[in-house]
Every structure is written in structure tokens, then in C-alpha cells.
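Please produce the structure of this protein holding zinc ion.
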Amino acid sequence: MDELLLSGYLDGCRDELLATLVDWLRIPSVSADPAHASDVARSAEFCAGLMRDAGLTNVSVLPTGPGGDGTGAPAVYGEWLGAGPQALTVLVYGHHDVQPVDPLDEWEGPPFSPTVSNGVLRARGCSDDKGQVLMQLAAVRGVLERLGGLPVNVKVLVEGEEEVGSPHFEDLLARLGERVACDLVVVSDTTMVAPDVPSTTVGMRGLVAFDISLRTARSDLHSGIWGGTVPNAALVAARLAAALHDDRGRVSIDGFYDDVRELSPEEAGSLAALPFDERAFLDKAGVGYLTGEAGRSAYERTGSRPTAEVVGLHSGYGGPGTKTIVPATANLKLALRLVPDQQPGAVEQAFRAWVAEHVPRGVEVVVQRHGGVAPLVTPVEHPSVRALSRAIEKVWGTAPLFERSGGSGPEEALARALGAPVIFLGVALPEDNFHAPNERLDLSQLWRGVLAAGELLVELGAQEGLVRARPGHPGP
Ligand SMILES: [Zn+2]
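Below is the modeled complex.
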């Protein structure tokens, strides 16, 4: 392997970086629990210290909440703009808040007393996401030490509310405005398939949810007197749920697939090359068999194909024993995961038309939409993904495979608010117990991540084509 830019730097500071990370992990920055609000604030201050130590300037802890009133958990921002106004500007995103720790009795040790054994660090937040934030900041510090400057402008934004659904993130981005303007977003908050199978996420699914209330009568009716003649709300809801898919596992909503983009041959090939162990997949989910769209692999079904799931179906009597009624009301809740180029608004229209067509006349129906997140993808052919692939290949010795994330996160808001493509340098592993007891981080992945983050800055610096036109860009 060629000598990497940060090899020597890293040899000189592994112990120090690990000790710093351990100190940060001792702060229980659980954003979901108001009792930990002061810890989240301490974690933000700690992160600000890391940014200053890395050589970033204009470092600040940013209050969040409506209008920045401080009722939300603080984010942290820092920048290095020495590459000049004509150079590429990259915004690095991560978060410093962590998931709650329960069930506590399943942890092998206290979650905020980090331990290291056999090259594995164990503590809440080590891989999701403090370790990966430290990885990026260590790379910035290392490249500044080695080259005296960075090949690109770097802005770092570390959120404090990611684990509670980023309720104030868009508001924060809007208030920061030009301060966070950039050409490209680099997210470090994801996993790789395996240490010897490097991979990178290139897209995330969108999401739109619906709540359908059905009423077939003024009130429940006696099943002996009325049963056999009047509509049953439970049956109407069950038929609607059953009609959602055809017998090939495809969603039956008219026009649902119209805007679904097929994978490019390169991405399809990469997705097919991802290792998949069906037995392990079944065991992990605790299920007896798999369902879904016929002719599509599990990775396609969870990543590049849209889905419609029933998340709740309620009607009639659920108490002890039985009750002789024909239920008058039912409620059906659905969650639809969207893929490029589906949009929540168009899907909502198609969905409402489908419901109207499938509910019998005479049934009162109210459809409410909840939320709406657009899907996100950066094509594997995009120069920023190419640069990331080269950086990973230099460190791991193999080019990364491409993955799609089945979920949705604040990345879509970043892409939309900043109008920039998003790439993912994530080094955690599937076995790292994100959000679960005994969260872990493989230190060899962390160190390789520091090297790769350094190489990525170099690769991006050579990509002039990524810089966007920017009238009025304030510059350094
Ligand atoms: Zn995370």
C-alpha cells in the first residue's frame, strides 16, 4: 500500500485520540431524556473544544429550538475556510447526542464507563456517533499538521438532537443560512458491511405515513339483530389492508411505481455483490420467512424499492371474553417508504385516489397524512462518490460497494436546505449495536476511517468540477 497522508500522524496520536474519545463518552448526552439536558450541553462544549484543537475557527455552540430559543439541544459548528472562495466547500455532518441506554441490565458494564478490550471500544455513543465525529476532526487536524492547510474549505456541523428525530434541525439550517452554504455534504454516521468488505451508503429512502379512519354506522350494532345485513368496519379495514399488495408483493396503488428510478447497471451490480446470509437475516429479525416484491433481492427490497407497511389496524372489541357487536369504526395506519424519484405529495394524491376507489360507498372515510420526507440519492457515477471510493480504496485496499439505507434521517434536510449532494463516509459495523446495549466500535475501523477522511479531503481538493457557481459567496 502506498504511504497515506495521515499514516505518520496517526502513529503519533492513537493513544491520545482514544483517551480523548473515552473522555467524551463519559458524558451521558442522552437527548431523549430532559434529565440529561446539562450533559448534552457539556457534550457540546467538549465537541467545541475538539474543533478548536483540530484547528477550526469561528467555533460555536449553537442553541436550538424555535427561533434558536435554547429549548432544543445545542449543536456545534466550526470551520476552516483557508482554501479560498474559489475552492470546494465541504460540510461535514455528525451528531454528539446518544440513544438512551435501557435495558441497562443487558450491558456488560456501565454504558458511560468506556472499556477497551481486543481492539474494541465499548460505550454508549462510541460508534453512533461520537467516534465517527472524532474521526473527521482528527483527520482535519492531521491534514492541517501535515500540509499546513486543507485542500478544500471545511465546515463541521455536529447536531445534538439526531437521536430524537432532529426536530429543530431545519430551523437551525435556515438560521445559519450562508454560514453553512457548501458544495458537498459528507456524513459520518453510517455503517460498512464488514471490515474486509468496505461499503458506502449512497441513498436513503423517504417516508410518508397515513392514518385512515373508517365509520360504517353511527355506533356499534348488535350482531344478532343487525349482523348479516350491515357493513362491518373491521372487515372494511381488513379488506383495505389486504388490497394494499398484489400477489407478487407489489404495492397496488395506481401509479405508485411511476416515478421509481431503476438502479444504474453499475449500482445494481454493486448491490448484487453485497454479501447476504438469508439464515442470519431471518435469525436476526426473529422471523420464519421473508416476504416482499417478487424478483427483487432483500437489499433491493430494503433499499432501492418502495414499500407500504401496515403499522396499525384497530377495530371492534379487544377486551376480555367476547362481545356481540358489528363494529362501527376502524382505524388503519400505514407507513410508505419512498425511493428516488417518488415525492411525498404525488404519492399522497395517488394514495387518496386508491382509498376512495377501495372503500365502499356509504362508508365515511377520513385520510390524514403524517410527515413527509423525500428520498435521497447521490448517483454512484457522481464525481464526489468517485472521490470517496478512491479514498476508501487507498485505505482498505478494495473499492467500496454501494448500499442504500432503508431508513430516513436528517440527511434529506441537509440535501434540500443546502442544495448539495450528500456522500457517506461511515466506518461503524453492523455488529456495533447502534441504539442497543453494548454499543461497540472496532478501533481498527476508527483508525482506517481517520486515514480515509484525510485521503477524502485530498481527493476532493483535486475535483474542481464539484465547485458550484456562487455569486456573493462571502469567502474566508
Ligand atoms: Zn447516529
